[in-house]
């Protein structure tokens, strides 16, 4: 029963992250901290819906942060994206992170191409000096954190439906 509760907490957290990123292009630190705390609580209680241990959670969070931090340092990604990926690592462990990253990057690329076509934006206008990559109207064009949490949420739903959620 507790695993089902934590699965629900994860899905609500992922929905709040995704909707906040899509609507406002902003994810508050409180939401990140709540997600991390819930992930750690789920593994400490041995009720993580992804079936990982505390060590796997800590490794996943560290790897998620370390993989994305260079992109933040180069201004290719926002700080919230880095933090959300670290929290995803805390929830799911390190193993699925590469898959989430690939799916999120494909989704973000498709989103960016559609935006370029709809707004008739030339490629050279996407990277103005001092602005984040793929900025339109002074704002980040692609809600990358939403692209990150979507495959994780879909994976959890798949695990639950297929009977693999622990």
UniProtKB/TrEMBL annotation:
<keyword id="KW-1133">Transmembrane helix</keyword>
<keyword id="KW-0472">Membrane</keyword>
<comment type="similarity">
    <text>Belongs to the peptidase A24 family.</text>
</comment>
<protein>
    <submittedName>
        <fullName>Peptidase A24A prepilin type IV</fullName>
    </submittedName>
</protein>
<dbReference type="Pfam" id="PF01478">
    <property type="entry name" value="Peptidase_A24"/>
</dbReference>
<feature type="transmembrane region" description="Helical">
    <location>
        <begin position="98"/>
        <end position="120"/>
    </location>
</feature>
<dbReference type="InterPro" id="IPR000045">
    <property type="entry name" value="Prepilin_IV_endopep_pep"/>
</dbReference>
<feature type="transmembrane region" description="Helical">
    <location>
        <begin position="141"/>
        <end position="161"/>
    </location>
</feature>
<feature type="transmembrane region" description="Helical">
    <location>
        <begin position="58"/>
        <end position="78"/>
    </location>
</feature>
<feature type="transmembrane region" description="Helical">
    <location>
        <begin position="29"/>
        <end position="46"/>
    </location>
</feature>
<feature type="domain" description="Prepilin type IV endopeptidase peptidase">
    <location>
        <begin position="9"/>
        <end position="112"/>
    </location>
</feature>
<dbReference type="InterPro" id="IPR050882">
    <property type="entry name" value="Prepilin_peptidase/N-MTase"/>
</dbReference>
<keyword id="KW-0812">Transmembrane</keyword>
């Amino acid at each position: 029963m507790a695993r089902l509760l934590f699965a629900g907490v994860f899905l609500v957290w992922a929905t709040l992250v995704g909707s906040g990123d899509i609507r406002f292009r902003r994810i508050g630190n409180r939401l990140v901290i709540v997600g991390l705390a819930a992930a750690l609580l789920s593994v400490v209680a041995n009720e993580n819906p992804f079936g990982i241990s505390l060590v796997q959670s800590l490794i996943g969070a560290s790897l998620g942060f370390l993989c994305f931090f260079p992109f933040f340092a180069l201004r290719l990604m926002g700080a919230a994206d880095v933090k959300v990926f670290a929290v995803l690592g805390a929830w799911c462990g390190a193993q699925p992170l590469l898959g989430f990253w690939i799916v999120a990057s494909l989704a973000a690329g498709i989103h960016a191409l559609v935006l370029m076509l709809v707004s008739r934006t030339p490629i050279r206008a996407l990277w103005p000096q001092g602005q984040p990559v793929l900025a339109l109207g002074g704002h980040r064009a692609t809600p990358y954190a939403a692209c990150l949490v979507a495959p994780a949420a879909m994976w959890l739903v798949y695990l639950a439906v297929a009977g693999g959620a622990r």
